[in-house]
Amino acid sequence: MSSSGTPPYQLEDDFSDDDDLLELETLAMLERDWKQKMPQRTCRLSGQEYTTFLLNSNPHNIKDILRVDKHTFRALVVELVRRNLFQWDHKNLSVEESLAIFLYVCGQNARARVVADRFQRSLDTISRHFNIILVLFAISLPLLFDHQIFTKRRLKFSMMEDTIHGSK
Q: Is the separation of the CB atoms in 147 and 78 below 8 Å?
């Protein structure tokens, strides 16, 4: 027996019960916190609002962020829609926002998580729409360039090359 009159094993059981109770309280607190989900993407501007902001703000903003000017951006959207290479049936994502996502990734060398946070979209949505625009560019890029202009530029380059190196 101990000096307090209780056997030593009795003291151990009391500490053990306190430890168990503390563990249970900690587990309950962790479970409660785990169940209370916090929204992850909470920026004030949605992806569409951010795209609109870039298009309507200082022209340097869109050039710095998407690496194209406003007129080029709008021309790309018009050409993609005009050529009717696809039927856009995505509920919540406009062609403009998808193109902005694509250009943001390419222009800023941004990772999907950064883009998802900036445009307030899921990683799956960012990946899917990046790939949609990538495929559209791969299909339509030859159609977007005027073949005659390209041929004339190549001819001018060949003539300049002959002048520099001397004709044969």
A: no
| C-alpha 155: how far from chain center | 40
Tell me how far apart the alpha carbons of residues 56 and 65 are, in angstroms, rounded to a whole number. Answer: 13
Task: Assess contact for 116 and 91: CB atoms under 8 A.
Answer: no
Tens of pLDDT along the chain (168 residues) come to 555 555 555 544 445 667 777 888 887 777 776 666 666 656 788 999 999 999 999 999 999 999 999 999 999 888 878 766 666 666 678 899 999 999 999 999 999 999 999 999 999 999 999 998 888 888 777 665 655 555 555 555 555 555 555 554
Find all residues with CB under 8 Å of 98, minimum gap 6, and list them: 90, 129, 132, 133
The token pair at 78 is 């018009």
- Residue 120 CA to residue 131 CA, distance in Å, equals 18
Cα dihedral 49, 54, 55, 60, rounded to 10, equals: 170
Q: How far apart are CA 20 and CA 8, in angstroms?
A: 19
CB 135: neighbour CB atoms within 10 A?
12
